[in-house]
Amino acid sequence: MSDLPVHDHWIDGRPTAGTDQQRLGDVFDPATGQARSRVRLAGVADVDAAVAAARAAATTWSETSVTARSRVMFTFRELLVQHEDELAAVISAEHGKTLDDARGEVVRGREVVEFACGIPQLLKGDFNDQVSAGVDSHSFRQPLGVVAGITPFNFPIMVPLWMHPVAIACGNTFVLKPSERVPGASDLVARLYQQAGLPDGVFNVVHGDKVAVDALLGHPDVDAVSFVGSTPIARHVHEGASRTGKRVQALGGAKNHAVVMPDADLDFAADHIVAAGYGSAGQRCMAISAVVAVGPAADTLVDKIRERTVDLTVGPGSRAGVDMGPVITRASRDRIVDFVGQAEDAGAKVVVDGRDLVVEGHEGGFFVGPTLVDHATTEMSVYTDEIFGPLLTVLRVATLDEAIALINANPFGNGTAVFTSSGEVGRSFQRRVKVGMIGVNVPVPVPMAFHSFGGWKDSMFGDHHMHGPEGIRFYTQAKVVTTRWPHVSEESLAQLNFPTAQ
């Protein structure tokens, strides 16, 4: 493996091997099961170097005009357009998702950059004239300083783009710790930022594992941390960052339900559930994994989902005509297969079985076929656990009330959807479910960039959701200024009692 390319860190505007040069991890091509490159795993000293570079750049960047920061974002946005195919190819090779899916990820991430281009408007404060006699008040927001992002493997460019464009446009400097399984996109983004005119040290990348994560959480010069990943790690990040006085937002896992009512267009519902459940091999935090069929909708709906599932083409993401690629690791594949077996042993019916899928010419790849399990119950592990794979589980209930109660009893609260032709059902559903993001006939209700992304319950730890208005609030802190400019000859009105309006 010594001849494999190596991903260096990006610190203070240049690639660097860092101090822990012997700590390397393999980056696999999930379609072949073979290592395609290696990645540096940062030690504490490497994190210190990245944070120091960010801290040194913070004073100048925070004082850079909001117009100049916006211009960098406009240029960066154009570079993302120009390099869309290159980014998609890197994502597909390291993650396994299809090229079309990877391009879609780039586009959705770019929308946050477009939102950040409007930072002059987004940072406008408030002003009140004459709040008291001769007194005015105004408010404005300032950057925090150095902020860090810790991101997962499943969206190598989109999830980091939920964070750093908004943070940087607000005047912060940024240290990104991407998943060590998919380092390539972050390396390219660092170079595109530099090409866009971003000063050295404003955006830094440290690759690594838990050592790097914990170093960021405990670092005294990191002012805030953003995280997306599993719920156990989200708890760890939230607790660790909070313990050291940092502002923190940590998005955790999910169990996203799609409720299908008897009055729904079942062909429409089946089409969209299949896309939402099996797209990106189910490795999305907003993927539909639990289908809740209400009343007489169940049998017909399962048949329609089955018909569409068996027609899906599985193979390497770079191959034309492929609907679904591999999962990220061999361990992930084996875990998904094990969940199917547990469901079968517990009495569920395996309607479509993808456990024995072999892709010709890619026998070493981490492939598991799209799988459909019916007659699951809320006690089965196939329902209680976040599986993160191409596995749709069908639960059957008699009424909408039962469906809503089932969703509300689940510890996760990331996303959910209802398929119905009734406005009354749609309105009742969206008001009653205890979930952060809701779709009505929309299976993957990821908000546009000018809204904010985030769930409830065990899917979200912290006070602010990501990007949109809440992203601006997370990466800035407010000041309120009250001013009086008395005439020099005016008698002083100072007094010891509590001041009141006059």
Instruction: Report strand %.
Output: 15-25%
Question: In terms of quaternary structure, what is this?
Answer: single chain
Amino- and carboxy-terminal Cα gap: 77 Å
Main sheet attributes: strand count, strand direction, barrel closure: 7 strands, mixed
Mean pLDDT across all residues, rounded? 96
Strand order of the largest sheet: 15-16-17-14-13-19-20
Low-confidence stretches: none
List keywords for this structure.
502 residues; 7-stranded mixed β-sheet; 6-stranded mixed β-sheet; globular; 23 strands; single chain
What does this structure look like?
- The chain has helices at residues 44-63, 66-82, 84-95, 99-116, 119-122, 158-169, 184-195, 210-218, 231-243, 266-278, 297-310, 330-345, 381-384, 400-409, 423-432, 468-474, and strands at residues 6-7, 9-11, 14-16, 24-29, 34-40, 126-132, 135-143, 146-150, 173-177, 203-205, 224-228, 247-251, 256-260, 288-294, 349-352, 371-374, 391-397, 412-413, 415-419, 437-440, 456-457, 460-462, 476-484.
- It is an alpha/beta fold and 502 residues long.
- The mean pLDDT is 96.
- Helix 2 (66-82) packs antiparallel against helix 4 and helix 8 packs parallel to helix 9 (231-243).
- Strand 2 (9-11) and strand 3 (14-16) form a beta hairpin.
- The protein is built from 16 helices and 23 strands.
